[in-house]
Specification:
68% of the residues lie in helices and 0% in strands. It is mainly alpha-helical. It has one domain. The relative contact order is 0.09.
């Protein structure tokens, strides 16, 4: 359902992928700008809806019953 550790590891991997391909940055500001742009690109994907969320929610209600709080 929610894989927080995997999301963080994936985010770090994407940042490393960008910085690893560059042998050197001309300045610290250039590195920060590159990381900022990559972060904006990565976080755009976070706004996408979760696939099959209705099914996941239904299964949570079956397994956990009243302990699952419904948010509207």
């Amino acid at each position: 359902m929610i894989y927080t550790t995997n999301a963080i590891e994936h985010f770090n991997r994407q940042l490393r992928k960008v910085t690893k391909t560059k042998s050197a940055f001309v300045s610290d500001d250039a590195l920060l700008k590159q990381l900022y742009l990559v972060t904006m690109n990565i976080t755009d994907k976070w706004m996408m809806p979760v696939r099959d969320w209705g099914s996941i929610r239904m299964h949570r209600m079956i397994y956990f019953g009243d302990s699952v709080k419904v948010r509207l």
